[in-house]
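User: Hey, my collaborator sent me this sequence without any context and asked if I could get a structure. I don't really work with proteins. Can you help?
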Amino acid sequence: MEQVSPQEAHRLIEDEHVTVIDCRENYEWEEMRIEGVRLVPLSEYEGEPGKVERHDKVIFQCAGGQRSQAAAEIYEQEHPGAVALNLDGGIAAWAANGFPIQVGPPTT
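Assistant: No problem. I've predicted the 3D structure and written it out in structure-token form, which is a compact way to encode the shape of the chain:
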């Protein structure tokens, strides 16, 4: 599992269309989120690692980086050979670097 800076994560998302998994809880997701990411709370993922299918490269993200690090480690155990990246500093660092976020409950 590797750490990835917000700048590198943004580049990977834009250029390589890397899958991003948000490991926070639903109430945190409803407050703010990175557009286009998928919510899979760590509290659910720990007991059911099949919730995240195998991709060549996945970025895991949470509020500050601890939960996403745990999720990335689970992912690598579940999918040997796949690359799991942890967004260093989480969504807080993403937002602090000026990258776009969506605020408020998602509209359906």
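In plain terms: The mean pLDDT is 93. You can pass these tokens on to your collaborator as they are.
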